[in-house]
Predict the structure.
Amino acid sequence: MPPPPRKERADAQRNREAVLAAAEELFGAHGDPERVSMDDIAVAAGVGKGTLFRRFGDRLGLVKALVERRTEQLRADVVAGPPPLGPGAPADARALALLDALLTLKLDTRPLMLALESAGRGSPYDNDTYELWHAELTRCSPRPAASATPPSWHTRCWPPCAAT
């Protein structure tokens, strides 16, 4: 059995949060992570460049950490947050809240996700959180009979279904 993970030192945790906040602000201001240097992030965060590289490896490691931070927050909201996103809401309301939250996440992190996808070094969708969201949507989705006609909203929102 592996040893339990070591608790992060308080200064290391502060540095990590400062770097993530600085990177998020700079990436947002420039619209593309490639337009922001690691030097700029280190200066804005008030840390040395070595700290930045030791902690995140490179710009894409930092981008991935930002995406994971956002997806983890949404995961926490789905698992234990208040309805309609969290448990306790009717299935249809929960499914709509989750789809809305996922679309918002995707739009808010679009430059970050595009940077990961473009680099070919890991998909932003390659994590356990996406599996949780898919499972929640599956659980919230009604199971129509095989011969059932799709509801009218379904054919309006997804025209290919009108042909079935």
